[in-house]
Amino acid sequence: MLRLIGIVVSIGLADSLNPTTIAPALYMAGGKRAVSHVVQFTFGVFVVYLLGGLLIALGPGELIIDLVQRPSHAVRHLIEIAAGVAMMIVSGVLWLKRHELSEREPPARRDSRSSAILGATITAVELPTAFPYFFAISAVVGSGASVTRQVMLLVLFNICFVLPLLVIAVVLAVTGDGAEALLAKARDKLHANWPKVLAVVMLLAGLFVVLLGITGLLAKRPFGRFLHRRLFKPIGL
């Protein structure tokens, strides 16, 4: 279970550096009732992303697992390795397209719709291309964990995913108007640098997941046990 938590948290934190959700929250931070709008926006993002993940994991995901029976120990770790490699490939694509992506305009700030509906709408539109989320779901479903544990893991993933939005809300609540200039600078830096940052973080998360899969696959061999003791035993994985 701790291995799955490590995978879910690492992918969730990497996926959280998403300008599609962070940029609107930063724009809302400069308006009236900023804390309320950011919290509502975060709620909309969280609910839709979680429901989408649950529908995939407990619908077609569980059906596929039932059809092919529960995966073996080796298959579970091969799924982890595949998910990590896929993240590294996405990282490479982001890096190659970093200049093109940084020139795109960020999502517009809150309009006449409620902040919660805006968050839900943005997330629903982005969900079909949420590849890191799919990698996490594949690892969770492929683990053979119980439905209850799968739900808990997906909730944990989504908490990690909205963590930057929660940080923005907390900063606003604590500092009030004084945070506006700081968050405006953060918005500008995000616009200019998010492809590079996301590519690097996703690469590191992918490497972490691949190493977890490899050490799990080789757990019964001396080299695998050595790697696990050196890399993951100190952090409880």
Quick recap:
With 237 residues, this protein is mainly α.
Structure description:
The chain is an all-alpha fold. Helix content is 80%, strand content 0%. The protein is built from 11 helices and no strands. The protein has helices at residues 2-16, 19-28, 34-68, 73-96, 98-102, 115-126, 131-142, 147-161, 163-175, 179-217, 222-231. The longest helix has 39 residues, at 179-217. The model is unreliable at 108-112 (pLDDT under 50).
SS class: mainly alpha
What's the main sheet like?
A: none
| Straight-line N-to-C gap | 9 Å
Radius of gyration: 19 Å
Strand content: under 5%
Q: Would you count the extended β strands for me?
A: 0
State mean pLDDT (0 to 100 scale): 76
Please count the helical segments: 11
Q: List the secondary-structure elements in sequence, H or E.
A: HHHHHHHHHHH
Shape: globular
Number of domains: 1
Residue ranges: pLDDT <50 for 5 or more in a row?
A: 108-112
Helix content: over 70%
Features:
single chain; 237 residues; mainly alpha; 11 helices; globular
